[in-house]
Amino acid sequence: MTISIAFRCCILLGACLMANSALATTAASQTNPANEAAPSASAPPPLAKKAPQRIAVLDWTIAETMAAMEIFPAAIAEKNSYQVWSQSPAMPASTLDLGMRAQPNPDRLIRLAPDLILASQDYAFVKGLLERIGPTTLLDVYTPGQDIYENLRALAMRIGDITGHADRAARYIAQTDKALETISHELEPHRGQPVAIIQFIDARNVRIYGKPSLFSTALEKIGITNAWTAAVNQWGFQSADLTHLAALPKDTTLFIIKPYPADLPGKLQDNVIWQALPAVRNNRIILADPIWTLGGLSTVLRFAQTVRDGLQEQDANAGSNAAFRFPGYQQ
Q1: Could you give the CA distance from residue 79 to residue 276 in angstroms, rounded to a whole number?
Q2: Closest-CA residue to 219 (of 200, 195, 198, 241)
Q3: 136-139 and 116-120 as β-strands: parallel, antiparallel, unpaired?
Q4: What are phi and psi of 197, to 5 degrees?
Q5: pLDDT tens string for the chain (331 positions)?
Q6: Could you give the CA distance from residue 1 to residue 27 in angstroms, rounded to a whole number?
Q7: Do residues 210 and 238 touch, judged by C-beta distance below 8 A?
Q8: 152, 65 in Cβ contact below 8 A?
């Protein structure tokens, strides 16, 4: 999150908090006159700390991890978009939408009166303001230079501890580890096979994912080689044109992450470079549904399943000629 985004959050949160504080002060003066003595009472014994029930979440990776452990947030940011990109686990209808992740709606947060607000370290600039609405904890999600999978396992354990469900976190991690190991065994015939993961920007340019990235992490876990070995940015991808794809190993399978521009199929049909790619000529193009590139363990597993299903279907159709080389081509 940039400083400008954080500044907008500060302005919005600050304005709503000031208005809310003014209303609270007025109400207090009406119900508690200054000359009314407060009743004396001995302090009650401290109560055992309860696990938070009404949790507001501003980060999708945290929200996905909670949902996977069946700990559903009371509210998340950009709920509708989350349902498109993270998909599973889905949020229940009772989970409220807090507006944009970069600019959450402070009025909705105030009305929710959360027991706890969970966010990533990107919200450090506005933590002080968030804490005026409710207890706030910032979690490490994607830490540069650290192993992504271990980060996500640690995140699950931390959420389990915070919510009082450490047992669910341990079970979730164990189930994910086992599922990935199973997929790795299922893909034994493809051990070391090169795969490239791309998203189209337009008909000439793509984002291609390398290490470190969630996609590359998933490939490592199931014994598949990432064909892209060049440098990537802090988000795990590099912008490249189609000529870079021509430099990949000739037996590379291309996984294309949806969505892509509506006019892409027609333009690729007439693109000489695309048509000359070995992956295109040999029908090794696989489309994947939208996937949140900064997701949790569930997203790692979902992409691993996508790769397995795609490669196994490719095996089943080996030797057959494709009716077209990209969905939408005119035959």
Answers
A1: 41
A2: 195
A3: parallel
A4: -110, 120
A5: 444 444 445 445 554 444 444 334 434 444 444 444 444 455 555 555 678 889 999 999 999 999 999 999 999 999 999 988 887 788 999 999 999 988 889 899 999 999 999 999 999 998 999 999 999 999 998 887 789 999 999 999 999 999 999 999 999 999 999 999 999 999 999 998 999 999 999 999 999 999 999 999 999 999 999 999 999 998 899 999 999 999 999 999 999 999 999 899 889 988 999 999 999 998 899 999 999 889 999 999 999 999 999 999 988 876 554 433 555 454 4
A6: 37
A7: yes
A8: yes
Residues 6+ away with beta carbon under 8 Å from 44 = none
In 3D space, the residue among 201, 198, 217, 219 whose CA is nearest the CA of residue 209 turns out to be 198
Residues in the chain, how many? 331
- pTM value is 0.82
As given in the structure block, the two tokens for residue 6 are 């954080």
For residue 312, the Cα-to-chain-centroid distance in whole angstroms is: 26
CA-CA-CA-CA torsion for 18, 24, 26, 28, nearest 10 degrees? -150
Dmax (CA) of the chain: 91
Q: What DSSP state is assigned to residue 201? A: S
Q: Which of the 8 DSSP states describes residue 70?
A: T
Contact present, 57 and 112 (Cβ < 8 Å): no
Edge-first strand listing for the sheet containing 116-120: 96-97, 75-76, 55-57, 116-120, 136-139
Round to whole Å and give the CA distance between 216 and 232. Answer: 11
> Domains, the chain, ranges and CATH?
1-17+51-139 (3.40.50.1980), 177-316 (3.40.50.1980)
* SS3 sequence of 160-174: HHHHCCHHHHHHHHH
Number of neighbouring beta carbons within 10 Å of residue 12: 18
Say which amino acid occupies 81: S
CA distance between the termini of the chain: 45
